[in-house]
Design a protein that fits this description.
With about 150 residues, this protein is of the alpha+beta class. The protein contains 5 helices and 8 strands.
Length: about 150
């Protein structure tokens, strides 16, 4: 898994750099919200926009609820990144896509770190950067939808 040094709450410029876009375009192109997961309970706490983009009814969920709409080929890499972060304090990142419908995808970037010494059981902290617009890939056609 790609590990890059990040702070607890990466500055927008750092998130933009990790994604590979201009910092001025970040807020226009992506919803960026912090999240945390308590390892003792297995609960993930998301921001309201991130929860809505993951098609979740609330801001608390389990890991499998969170990744159910991700590209199935990416499930293993996402779970491995989170599993590694839950066993040793480290930084982590992953990229995937939410599939809101046939031929559509919404890029998702996640950057985080784990703290296994602070809270009982440990905590994962991170930032999601989720594209505001869906992209279309049906029949070799590529473009933005919305």
């Amino acid at each position: 898994m790609a590990s890059k040094p990040i702070m607890l709450s990466p500055r927008p410029a750092s998130v933009a750099d990790l994604i590979g876009i201009d910092a001025g375009e970040l807020e226009t192109a992506f919803v960026c919200e912090e999240w945390r997961a308590e390892l003792a309970t297995g609960l993930v706490h998301l921001g309201p926009e991130t929860a809505a983009l993951h098609d979740l009814s609330g801001t608390r969920c389990g890991i499998m609820d969170l990744i159910q709409f991700y590209e199935p080929a990416d499930w293993q890499k996402v779970l491995l990144a989170l599993e590694e972060a839950s066993t040793v304090s480290t930084t982590f990142s992953f990229a995937t896509a939410i599939r809101p419908g046939p031929g559509l995808y919404r890029p998702v970037f996640c950057f985080g770190r784990s703290d296994l010494e602070g809270v009982a059981g440990g905590v994962l902290f991170g930032t999601f950067a989720i594209a505001r617009l869906c992209l279309e890939t049906a029949s070799g056609r590529h473009g933005m939808v919305n």
